[in-house]
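Q: What structure does this chain adopt?
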Amino acid sequence: MNLPEWLQAEIGRVEDVLMERAGASPSALVAESSTHLIKAGGKRVRPALVLLSSRAGTPGLPQTDLAAAAIELVHLATLYHDDVIDESMTRRGVPTVHSKWGTDVAVLAGDYLFANGSTLGAEAGGEVPGILARAIAEVCEGQIVETSTVGDPNRSVDEYMATIGGKTAALFRAGCELGAATSGANDGARRALVAFGEHLGLAFQIVDDLLDVLGDPKLTGKVPGTDLREGVFTLPVLLACERDPSLRSMLASGERDIAAALPILTATGALEDTMAMAADHGAAAVAALDSLPEGDWLATMRSLADGVLAQIGAPA
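A:
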């Protein structure tokens, strides 16, 4: 993300809170494992959404920084657990926590980050604990549903969209709502920002689905077709299954080779239509901001949507 200097400075404050809270344990193992992914970097999209959305009210308040740090700790906790579930060996260019310290430490360190995120939310006060708790529940529900459908090519596109509305979009929505709530933004601005977060989160996940199929492994850090091989059938695959039963039969038999599936994804138009759906959600995210007063912060929010879609060459 190419963020303006004023936002980078605000994210710098949040980074300080992240390191302070995640690394507060007197146990070297707890502190090191809990700060492992923070030190590895990251785009910090979710805290950026909190900080940007706070510009709809009174920005720069302490509770906004706490909320921004809280949602990033929650996000990091989900990554720890996802990496255990997926048996991933690297994340952000470094070994995953479970590959370095073992599964038990990874799961417990993830729980520790959830707890610290909840503590920060409680310190922020007001609506923050409730917003965070609802988002955590939605993420967990979405992930459970996705786990239960691994290897099932009969899953509908609508079911998949509902799942990613929880496991991915929930934290985008929550980030925008936290920014609005902690800054005292009016109800109209809050609704607009939450709608932005919803559509941005959906676009983000759909683009990720496409990158798993078409992305350059040097840029994505993933071998193409990783989700397919693991039985996680994403939007382009499910669209193609609905249009060509032969793909559904192939996947149901356990054959999950991207080289065999890709011609079907192309022939059915599934890749093209997935890209169009990502673009539609990106456009809806931008349109949701139309009722808000213009400013640098609003331009930055639009650029976030543009940046997500630019990864696949889709128009904003």
